[in-house]
């Protein structure tokens, strides 16, 4: 079966980012995630889920919605201690585990 031009374009984009990833693998990962974002659990709206990967190792972690993928980049400095303080500050219950 010949890949569609859009599939070849998507795979070329992933290669430019240093990822060895195919549309077939994307579809399999999407199926394993039940068609939803690996973080928030929501289905994609208006666009495909982003392929989240470690920018140093290029290891693919999962598929994320644009919102989660962008916020994950912003939150690299967030620590468990900071999250605990933020939870307390906002009046949310303490984490149990």
| Count of discrete alpha- or pi-helical segments spanning 4 or more residues | 4
Could you tell me the CATH topology label.
His-Me finger endonuclease fold
Sheet with the most strands, sense and barrel status: 2 strands, antiparallel
User: Shape from CA axes?
Assistant: elongated
Helicity level, as a percent range?
40-55%
Ends apart, CA distance between termini: 48 Å
Overall average residue pLDDT: 84
Total domain modules? 1
| N-to-C SSE string, H for helix and E for strand | HHEEHH
What percent of residues are in strands?
5-15%
CATH-derived architecture: 3-Layer(aba) Sandwich
* Number of β-strand runs: 2
What does this structure look like?
There is one protein chain. The chain has 97 residues and is mainly α. The chain has a single domain, classed as His-Me finger endonuclease fold, CATH 3.40.1800. The protein contains four helices and two strands; from the N terminus they run ααββαα. The chain has helices at 5-16, 23-32, 66-74, 80-89; strands at residues 50-53, 60-64. It has a two-stranded antiparallel ribbon with strand order 1-2. A hairpin with a 6-residue loop joins strand 1 and strand 2 (60-64). It is elongated and about 55 Å long. 7% of the residues are buried. The mean pLDDT is 84.
